[in-house]
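Entry 12.
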Amino acid sequence: MKFKHLLLALATSVALVGPGLAAEFKIGLNEDPDLLDPDQARSFVGRIVFASLCDKLVDITPGLEIIPQLATAWNWSDDGMELTMDLRQGVTFQDGTPFDAAAVVANIDRSQTLPESRRKSELTSVEKIEATGDHQVKFTLKAPDATLLAQLADRAGMMMSPTAFNASGLDFANNPVCSGPFSFGERVQQDRIVLNKYDGYWNADAIHVDKVTFLPIPDTTVRLANLRAGDLDMLERLAATDVKSVKADPNLSEAEAVSLGYQGITVNIANGAGAGSPIGNSKLVRQAFSWALDREAINQVVFDGAFAAGNQPFPPTSPWYTKDLPVPPRDVAKAKALLKEAGYDKVDVELTVANNPVNQQLGQVIQAMANEAGFNVSLKSTEFATLLSAQSAGDYQTDQIGWSGRIDPDGNIYSFVVTGGGLNDNDYSNPEVDKLLNEARTNNDIATRKSLYDQANHILDDELPIIYLYHQTWIWALSKDIKGFVPYPDGMIRLEGVTKG
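Predicted 3D structure (tokens):
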């Protein structure tokens, strides 16, 4: 993989030599994205690509305020049942078709009705959307929804060309057409995704490179070596153990932002062929597994102390964190007792991890800790997009996987644990959790919402469909000649204002 990308970069640099030729911005990704369709996609790196490809109705600031993007203004009715949005005029999709109210209606309808859409549970509150003018839409809700604007600041709000998705159906992912600053050029699976500057972009003056190429390089050491060699301009998710080295390198710079998300272990409760294992069938076994893990030691050993130990969908620094459920210490004796109570002396567990050195090391540490409590953990290493596909199909027992986080707490919990949620790949179902989280969506009072999330977290901490482990810090490394990059807590790479050279 290393030499492959070095040769690619050399070929690219030769092609760009000469006066007046366009600048290319090369970004090293931790893995290859899944489907390049905002309705079907679920990977973090896919969202990084979408940040250049697909504008949203609204965006966020580094301070997590919601700001205009394709919607220039919005207002709520007094009863919170209607959201009216004014849309930016003079915008076109990358196929030249107009962005207008009819296009927004078509996008939201697709997100709600496409059988393969993972956005359905993010838009369940929307009863209907209608065009109330050429550049105005109105959302009518089934019940007040405190989360809707935050949903529209992410994939549910990404605008695609209706002409393109109506013509191509599910094949839209192979040639996506959106409204962002860069249009789709080509994709070679596991090798590269190339986007080209869209000259018709409404904010084209803020874009200073003509091409952006995303290169999936799972090996963190190889990714950093490519940056140092000049074959990348930037990489995302620098290994925490390499931060000191990058900071000492005069040719590189480093940027950080505390993430909104989490990393953990998703346990297959009732989804397909991977269900039916002891850890999936028994909450006592899941509790034992959790007590076998030393979360702070994981942080120190694998991440050089750069991250935060965690046991909930929200980090301990979040105002939504349930304070009376602190991160548990390791207790091997308690883990063994819980296994015995469940009727086991030993339990076999297959844990799937992504095929990069950091995740493999994390898996090995988990394996060693759990073994001391009576778990025989076998590790299965696979490419990340394959891991996601297998998880959706239920072809897994446990997966080490996380979530990049959202600005509203609903985004970190609802779709993963509500019955039928778009990202509920373990088929966990608890009517009381459903009731609490649906009520939290419809209430704008912060104290009331906090109480509802606390109650849900107590149930989830007992049943453990997801065993939360830690909360990461996004770390980027860049060439010194890259200027204007702003780190965001959502981990996205926004190229507006970024210059090279």
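Annotation: The chain has three domains: 2-13+21-34+182-257+474-500, 58-164, 262-471. The two ends are 27 Å apart (CA to CA).
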